[in-house]
Task: structure prediction
Amino acid sequence: MTSVHSVLIKDLSLNFGSISVLKNLNIEVADGEFLVLLGPSGCGKSTLLNCIAGLLDISDGQIFIKGKNVTWEEPKDRGIGMVFQSYALYPQMTVEKNLSFGLRVAGLPAAEIQKRIAHAAEILQIGPLLNRKPAELSGGQRQRVAIGRALVRDVDVFLFDEPLSNLDAKLRSELRVEIKRLHHKLANTMIYVTHDQIEALTLADRIAVMKGGLIQQLDDPLTIYNRPRNLFVASFIGSPA
Ligand code: ADP
Ligand code: MG
Result:
């Protein structure tokens, strides 16, 4: 039953000490779906994403990816790729090395590594940048490389944590289009954290609106916008009418 879902979150809770940050969350993400986690700062979006990635141990519940219980799996064994707000590139390495590093550590053959880098470079249009260092790139170019690092790993699920929030408005809308294009092309599952309503409405198949570690509403963008379930959702994203 779980295999029809790309990501299944069951009764997930997370406490930091005595503070309950995520409260019994249940989310089913369909295969190939673009799910946006939307909510104000501090509502638990990054914490939830980090739980899915395996970067935080959860206090209660279970996480399944592609039907497999990964609750206690290492991050590297979960079939996920993560793109953060800060680019998290290795400053001393060229773009090509940044892309290939994890693959070399994993022991992939050189020819396969080259193939994957060429594929990512083409999709993300970063071919001309492969020999540059991160310091020689613009913010938008760095973020493309960061996405490329997830892409070359050939993962089932992409996790994005506010990848565009350090960029100016023009670049943000350009990369929004880029990410949408990437999703259409790859057709894999994406879970995307943002506090930006426009980003959520334009990217998402469905939006989970969060507040205080709880999901207030999980619906497609039009439903959220036109029929917000409560005052919080209405004031945060809903139609002004
Ligand atoms: P968001 O990404 O939605 O802005 P976070 O997931 O970063 O929110 O944080 C959710 C809540 O958990 C916040 O109240 C934050 O202060 C708290 N929190 C996050 N990380 C820790 C931590 N390591 N220890 C204690 N509290 C934390
Ligand atoms: Mg955050």
About this structure: Residues 169-186 form the longest helix (18 residues). Residues 45-46 surround magnesium ion (ligand 2) (CB under 6 Å).
